[in-house]
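Operator note (shift B, R.M.): manual run for Type II secretion system protein H requested after the automated queue skipped it. Running by hand, logging everything below so the morning shift can see what happened. Input copied straight from the record, untouched. If output looks odd, do not overwrite the archive copy; leave it for review.
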Amino acid sequence: MLARRIGASGPLRGFTLIELLVVIVILGSLIGLAVLSSGIAGPARELRNEAERLAGLIGVLADEALLDNREYGLRLSAEGYQVLQYQPGSARWQALDDEPYRLPDWAELSVELEGEALQLPQPAAERRRAAPPQLLILSSGELSPFRLHLRERRKGGVQLQLSSDGFRLPRVEVDSPPGRSG
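Run finished. Output pasted below as returned.
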């Protein structure tokens, strides 16, 4: 067939401009869907990353507590959290880092311990060095039963939840805001 086309005296047939444009539109749509589904940008994806980071931190601290026979805690505020370690010699909680980890400005944290909503201190109103942790991670393998809510500050924003019954490690779940059935 190739030999016949080369020797043919008629016009060669190729792709039309319309066919090329249709292929480009289809490829562009597929690429756009892939970018949107991967969630490269946006507060919802960042909030999920923050929640996964916190769940991973709790898991690592639980492992460290078991292996090193130490007690750990998380001091929580609406803007972030700080890891503490119990010092048996001085009978005090000591921060492992100088500064607490801060969530992005558009995100906030709240917590319920054993079903009771806990009012978290605001950084300006609290004395960080003296405040004990709200969430305990013990060397026995137990955790304080808790439910943490990470949410966007804007109305109608994404809300995620991490919870533990005191024995299992938390995992990230989508949380429906109060007043909504879901």
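Quick read of the result: The CA atoms of residues 58 and 105 lie 22 Å apart. The domain at 39-174 is CATH 3.55.40.10 (minor pseudopilin epsh fold).
Leaving this for review. - R.M.
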